[in-house]
Specification:
6 helices, 165 residues, 2 domains, 64% helix, 2 strands, mainly alpha, 2% strand, two-stranded antiparallel ribbon
């Protein structure tokens, strides 16, 4: 749902930020043992519908011991339970990656909104003080400035936005 919203033409950055926050909460909630069990049940039902075996098969490869480089290194206990191995090495890894990516996009959207956000809702400019509009325009001018070169003039933009409001 979030991915589709981020790709829409009528893109509202504030709604996208809220949706990304909800997605992150959902993913963090899914990173638990009980949700893993629910996911296994759902996957088992789907596999049954598709006539696919839903069993964890043992690896035919023998687990090798690695030589330790230093005496203070702790031994990593190998996971022999295939269900636990799947949970740790795949399920939690995928959930952690998704949480990280959602958090990254959430942060980027907030940064973009802090600079351009006031332009997305021109109707709210009627209730905004001229001082606040000027501050937002100055922030935008600074963000779009490269050296001495400016893409916009904050005072002109402020005057146009106030007239437009």
């Amino acid at each position: 749902m979030t991915s589709k919203q981020l790709q829409e033409k009528e893109f509202n950055i504030n709604d996208a930020i809220n949706q990304l926050g909800e997605t992150k909460k959902f993913l963090v909630g899914r990173r638990s043992d009980t949700d893993f069990e629910k996911t296994l049940v759902d996957a088992g039902e789907l596999a049954e519908e598709l006539d696919v075996p839903a069993l964890f098969e043992p690896d035919p490869i023998r687990i090798r011991k690695k030589r330790k480089q230093f005496t203070y290194e702790a031994d990593d206990e190998p996971i022999y339970n295939l269900k636990e191995k799947f949970k740790v090495n795949f399920y939690f890894a995928v959930i952690d990656t998704a949480i990280h990516l959602a958090e990254e996009r959430f942060t980027l959207m907030q940064q973009i909104s802090s600079v351009f956000g006031f332009l997305y809702d021109v109707y709210s400019l009627q209730n905004t003080t001229p001082k606040q509009i000027m501050e937002d325009c100055l922030n935008l001018e600074q963000a779009l400035q490269h050296g001495e070169s400016k893409d916009i003039d904050a005072f002109d933009l402020c005057n146009e936005l106030q007239a437009f409001a």
